[in-house]
Amino acid sequence: MSSAPRSARGPRPGSNARVASIDYGNLHAHYGYALKRAQIAAFDAFARATAGMQMTPPRYTALVILQANPGISQSALGSALGTARSGAMMLTDWLVRRDLAERRHRTDNKRAWGLYLTCEGAALVVRLKRRVFAHDQRVAARLTARERRELLRLLEKFTE
Amino acid sequence: MSSAPRSARGPRPGSNARVASIDYGNLHAHYGYALKRAQIAAFDAFARATAGMQMTPPRYTALVILQANPGISQSALGSALGTARSGAMMLTDWLVRRDLAERRHRTDNKRAWGLYLTCEGAALVVRLKRRVFAHDQRVAARLTARERRELLRLLEKFTE
DNA sequence: TATTGTTATACTCTATAACTATA
DNA sequence: TATAGTTATAGAGTATAACAATA
Question: In chain B, which among 41-60 make CB contacts under 8 A with chain A?
Fold first, then answer.
């Protein structure tokens, strides 16, 4: 994929490529280390799946949550994302600026907005999901179908 | 663990706690999402294991790599960490300032340093490894021994 | 008194680029 | 011409704190 001349300067920053000449000790026995590397690989796949769409994992997550929870408040969105209210605010601003989501006044609570996807937003989520899931399968191609299910199951059990 | 009054404001920022009232769609079917959440859990365990020691995952990784590769150059350390040279520089500065590592001149190449752990650094790595591995086991306690091995194996296969 | 949204601020992390000295 | 180290800078991401409006 990369083509710029990098000479013998090693892997580009942000990569998780393993360097043959280096002894990594027992780093790979740490869940944190192994998870971080796998996560970088998965996020690389996400970046390829959404290239040129100015998408990020948090933005994608927000879109999916808005799709599944129409009318949710900004604070609740923040909780779902595990981010502070101010972060949910900026995320929402971005979505609104792109006409992917809109804030609607609530009748029951004048403090909170109800957040909804626009038509474009709803269409985009559908398109995005297809692309991201397709790249997910590609990056996990090394695993058998059984291993893929098992990985997700173990991750869930580990996190819970 | 937490005790500050947070009322009903939901999980604190940076947490990956699941909110019962929210529909997460099929987010959990994405490797990136599942991996990110698991990684947060693992890094939380790392933070608990190293509380008050001003340790971070990159610092710990650097210490382990220095332990396994005495005399390594800063650039090679950067490659191993997947970070830019400038990042390896600041990391090394931090270690040197704490008397955990030292730069030694090389006879064969006057451009590059050779990096070595000091006695304190070597002692610290041993202590850290014990603590981090102990907390690793605790966070993975929900998994059986077989599942733990399988998780690490699948992560490795996924990343490679 | 607590919550929602908002804004401003600060901090961490890390990539990029330019420079120097060696090779 | 390329590499190792250094330094300065910039950007992304995100937490904290304070405030007004509402509950």
Answer: 41-43, 45-46, 57
Q: Which pTM does this prediction carry? A: 0.94
Q: Which of A9-18, A109-118, B86-95, B124-133 has the lowest mean pLDDT?
A: A9-18
Using the CA of B85, which nucleotide's C1' is the nearest one?
Answer: D5
Q: Is residue B109 part of a domain?
A: yes
> If we measure between CA atoms, which residue out of B66, B69, B68 comes closest to residue B96?
B66
Instruction: Report yes or no on A12 lying in a domain.
Output: no
* Cα gap A47→A41, rounded to integer Å: 10
pLDDT given for residue B122 in this prediction: 98
Residues of chain A contacting B67 with CB distance shorter than 8 Å: 25
Nearest to B143 among A35, A68, A157 (CB): A157
Asked whether residue B11 is assigned to any structural domain, the reply reads no
CB neighbours of residue B88 within 10 Å: 24
Are A43 and B32 a contacting pair, CB within 8 Å?
yes
**Average predicted confidence (pLDDT) for chain B:** 93
Q: What is the pLDDT of residues B48-82, one digit of tens each?
A: 999 999 999 999 999 999 999 999 999 999 999 99
Number of domains in chain B: 1
